[in-house]
Amino acid sequence: MKPLLQVENLSKSFGGLSAVQDVTFSLRRDEMVGLIGPNGSGKTTLMRLIIGMLKADHGRVLFKDEDMIGRPPWGVVKKGIAMTHQVVRPFRELPLMANVMLGVLGSGRNRGEWIKRVETVAMDALEFCGISDLARERASILPHGDLKRLELARALATEPDLLILDEPFAGLDSHETDLMAKSLKRLHKGGRFGRLHSEGPAMLIVEHKLSELMKIVDRVMVLNYGRLIAQGPPAEIVNDPKVVEVYVGGHQSRGRTDAA
């Protein structure tokens, strides 16, 4: 199967400090891929380069054979890539429905076609995420677990072909984590969000809860000091000596934040 996403020799530095160094990988439409690494390894920077929130120093991001480098984030979303964020920042005084609708309209994706039925699309997304009964409630009343579901609904309503998730399990208890994991797996396997999807999106998932992540992904990539040091099936990655050394031996980035 032809890759949906191809990242080629992608690099980014901040003030002479290399955050992402010549990273190359591909991702197919039928894959859920995990991205792991110690704090400061470059995971967030890599995601932001793909989504257009940061400008790469060099390298290419090809999505459906089109180069995304230089496109603004809304232009990347319009092409079919959406991202959820670890820190959820909804419009707290607006209803959940309005939060999701604004995300759809703001993406600019097929705006003329969507404007007449954007409310239906938003409700479909909320229903898939299990919070449609709260559609008219303000986002400020939501507990953390439901805020995570709202963040996912906002991304789903743009109908992404690739969904990038930044720590979707962060702050969730074991029960909420299990529900989120099952929702993501069901979505990817063609759980038909709303009336529009015939197949689920590919997923790139950054997560620190490794045991939960390994249960749902097909492949895992490992970053350290901004370099891709290993990739493969979960069973291989957990026994890879280089990966074990990074997590157990203490050879991980120091004095940096994950945003770098």
Fold topology:
Layout: E1 5-14, E2 17-27, E3 32-36, H1 43-51, E4 58-63, E5 66-67, H2 73-79, E6 81-84, H3 96-107, H4 111-114, H5 118-128, H6 144-156, E7 162-166, H7 174-188, E8 202-206, H8 210-216, E9 219-224, E10 227-232, H9 234-237, H10 241-248
What do these coordinates show?
The protein is α/β, with parallel strands linked by helices and 260 residues long. It has a domain at 5-94 and 160-205 and 217-228: P-loop containing nucleotide triphosphate hydrolases (Rossmann fold, 3-Layer(aba) Sandwich). Helices cover 35% and strands 23% of the residues. It is built from ten helices and ten strands. It has helices spanning 43-51, 73-79, 96-107, 111-114, 118-128, 144-156, 174-188, 210-216, 234-237, 241-248, and strands at residues 5-14, 17-27, 32-36, 58-63, 66-67, 81-84, 162-166, 202-206, 219-224, 227-232. The strands form two sheets. The chain has a six-stranded mixed β-sheet with strand order 6-7-8-3-9-10, with helices on both faces. Strands 2-1-4-5 form a four-stranded antiparallel β-sheet, covered by helices on one side. A hairpin with a 2-residue loop joins strand 9 (219-224) and strand 10. The longest helix is centred in the last third of the chain and has 15 residues, at 174-188. It is globular and about 50 Å long. It starts with a strand and ends in a 12-residue tail after the last helix.
Summarize the structure.
This protein is 35% helix and 23% strand.
Features:
about 260 residues, alpha/beta, Rossmann fold, six-stranded mixed β-sheet, four-stranded antiparallel β-sheet, 10 strands, disordered C terminus
